[in-house]
Amino acid sequence: MTDESGFDIVPPEAIADGRATDAYFDRTVETLEHADRNPHVVAEVTADQFPTGEWELLAGVKDAARLLESRDVDVDAMREGRLFDGGPVMRIEGPYLEFCRLETALLGLLSHPTGVATAALEARRAAPDTTVLSFGSRHVHPSIGAMVERSALIGGLDGISNVAGGEVIGREAGGTMPHALVIAFGRGEQEAAWQAFDEAVGEGVPRVALADTYSDEVDESVRAAEAVDALDSVRIDTTASRRGDFEHIVREVRWTLDAEGFDDVSIFVSGGLGPAQLRDLREYVEGFGVGSHVSNADPVDFALDIVEVDGELAAKRGKLTDKKAVYRTDDGGHHVALAEEEGPEDGEPLLRPLVRDGEVVRECSLDAAIDRAADDAATVDFDPPADESE
Questions:
Q1: pLDDT by residue (tens digit) across 338-370?
Q2: Has residue 8 got a pLDDT over 90?
Q3: Do 140 and 257 fall into the same domain?
Q4: Residues in CB range of 315: below 8 A, 6 or more apart
Q5: What is the pLDDT of residue 147?
Q6: Residues 160, 254: one domain?
Q7: How many whole angstroms separate alpha carbon 106 and alpha carbon 140?
């Protein structure tokens, strides 16, 4: 019987106890239990078998650790905020029935956050000296708002907009005004809206006026600067169908504000932006709001593969058998090798203990992941695609 009383959300307890699984894992458990078989396995979570040169930023490890704790397994994993382009990001060892039904949820907990964090890093690196905020919550199911915001921060974005998501991850959300606020005051009453906002919100809220609701962006920007004392910024969020040469519009706003004596008023730009637009506009603006490029990022296609069964090598065709290690070298290289072999002389092992005998043995700090991602991006010289279609 379906539950029509609430939202269509799988509850956390169903995830934790393995009910958020593909049905064939239930059949697998039934079959192995019937056959009285529970082999000790080594399984690895991998996107690409060999390094590809296409970097992705690992996220979701904190939730993966929470899923696997209290299970009779040992887990090694890369730390959140490390970049990888091949080889395993996680290794699980233990009786297979301990985690068989968790595979579906485990891959989801890693795949989607990693895609979001990678897209956030692309935006960050496209505008390295400019404030970039996460504006994408409205594009995704609200139940994953906290995941999107945490992953965006790992990728280097400077702030978030989702209030409940911020409460979950311990970060305060920020924001100023939508078009709806200006429209609520009526056409021609933009000054009244901007001034009411200035009078109503707390001192710590930036004075940012949305300046493209009814009139030309240049016109509304100057009017906002005249109407609000100590205005911090104008925000340009022009609908795509009205943009034309958007770079020219933004440059004209900057030029006119300076000419009118408002050179201290910054420009903030939002609305359908990706790395290419950030590169084009970063010279003229002080801040960006990035939404769908981050929140709608494709999940990374991780798979979990058994590579050893009861001490014997095992892997399906097309997968690399045996336990592996991955290393980062000083030149930014990502190396995959057999675990029993000696790694590169200057290689840093990336798979580190995460769970031992069902106990989580390391902290998954958001602040540390943010710092790690920034350092690793510099080490490997991570560069966003030159065009969003790439």
A1: 999 999 999 999 999 999 999 999 999 999 999
A2: yes
A3: yes
A4: 305, 306, 307, 321, 322
A5: 98
A6: yes
A7: 20
DSSP state of 57: E
Chain mean pLDDT for the chain: 96
Nearest of 34, 43, 20, 136 to residue 93 by alpha carbon: 43
Domain encompassing residue 325: 12-116+298-380
Q: What is the pLDDT of residues 321-346, one digit of tens each?
A: 999 999 999 999 999 999 999 999 99
Domain-located, residue 291: yes
Rounded Cα–Cα distance for residues 184 and 318 (Å): 59
Among 275, 295, 315, give the residue marking a domain's end.
295
In the chain, how many domains are there? 2
Together in a domain, 186 and 39: no
Is residue 1 situated within a structural domain? no
Q: What are phi and psi of 57, to 5 degrees?
A: -105, 120
Out of 260, 295, 330, pick the residue that ends a domain: 295
| C-alpha span between 42 and 53 (Å, rounded) | 26
Q: Is residue 385 part of a domain?
A: no
Phi-psi region of 315 (alpha: psi -120 to 50; beta: other; left: phi over 0): beta
Same-domain status, 259 and 319: no
Q: Which residues are CB-neighbours of 356 under 8 A, at least 6 positions away?
A: 74
pLDDT at 241: 84
Instruction: Quickly count: other Cβ atoms within 10 Å of residue 381's Cβ.
Output: 10
CA–CA gap between residue 8 and residue 6 (Å, rounded) = 7
CA 89 from chain centre, in angstroms, equals 17
288-316 pLDDT, tens digit each: 999 999 999 999 999 999 999 999 999 99
